[in-house]
Design a protein that fits this description.
Elements: H1 8-28, H2 31-35, H3 40-43, H4 48-61, E1 65-75, E2 79-88, E3 95-104, E4 107-115
Antiparallel strand pairs: 1-2, 2-3, 3-4
Length: 116
């Protein structure tokens, strides 16, 4: 199946639980939960120690994660990217959360993630 054929509802059914786990893992400092949907390539970029340092920085600078609002969905043949406005308790500005989900071997994996 092509990701170009998926409507917004189908994409959100796949992506929202993944992003929920990513954000919950960050808030709970739980590396396994945070990375459970990551592709092999994404998991290879950092380990549990780097993750804990990132958690410390986010908690110190941004606070706890809050609500997020979908801004856009971009589709390609084998992937889709979602962009959200992600709220954090200590920030008055906006944080862009972007996640690319790739279809590999009939399964969906988080292939790219940025919080900026």
């Amino acid at each position: 199946m092509s990701c170009l054929e998926l409507d917004d509802t189908d994409i959100l059914k796949v992506a929202n639980p993944m992003m929920d786990d990513i954000i919950r893992g960050l808030a709970r400092r739980d590396y396994a939960l945070h990375t459970c949907h990551f592709s092999v390539n994404l998991k290879s970029l950092g380990g549990p120690e780097d993750f804990l340092e990132t958690c410390d920085k986010f908690e110190s600078d941004w606070g706890s994660p809050g609500q997020r609002e979908l801004v856009a969905i971009f589709r390609k043949q084998k992937s889709f990217t979602l962009v959200w406005d992600q709220q954090f308790s200590h920030l008055e500005g906006q944080v862009m959360a972007a996640m690319t989900v790739a279809l590999k071997g009939g399964r969906y994996f988080v292939d790219h993630l940025i919080l900026h």
